[in-house]
Design goal:
By secondary structure, this protein is an alpha+beta fold. It has three helices and seven strands. The radius of gyration is 14 Å and the shape is globular.
């Protein structure tokens, strides 16, 4: 996806706000890998249950105001991409992020973590699904 496609996708995801297959987070550099894994597992399972081929975990957007605030989560490309390996190692069967898209938005850097729908995605032996709040 190019920058224009990513910008359009971000606008659509923000307009839909959070639902069972979209989660918006500010996510600073110290954001917990364990928390990402929990969202990964839940979003992946929900995408499968809802016949969607993917789910999205978006960093750099305030989940209350829906405003782009930017993120400094893993600013180094190699460190950012290593998240894929970490997710693969933490899931059974081994599943990882389909892609990590980086958007240079005027209001700050946004990461769109593309999560594939996966049946039986477990995080350390625990199946997770989203619940409405």
């Amino acid at each position: 996806m190019d920058g224009k496609d990513l910008q359009t996708l971000l606008e659509v995801l923000i307009a839909r706000w959070e639902n069972e297959v979209v989660e918006l987070k500010r996510a600073g550099d110290g954001y917990s890998t364990d928390d990402i894994g929990k969202y990964f597992s839940a979003l992946s399972n929900e995408a499968n249950l809802r016949d969607q081929d993917r789910a999205w975990l978006v960093f750099g957007v305030d989940n209350k105001t829906r405003k782009v605030v930017g993120t400094d989560y893993r600013p180094e490309p190699g460190r950012l991409q290593s998240l894929k390996m970490q997710m693969a190692e933490a899931t059974e069967p081994s599943v990882t992020l389909r892609n990590i898209h980086e958007l240079a938005h005027p209001d700050g850097r946004v990461l769109l973590l593309e999560i594939p729908a996966a049946m039986n995605s477990l995080l350390r032996g625990r199946r997770r699904v989203r619940t409405s709040s």
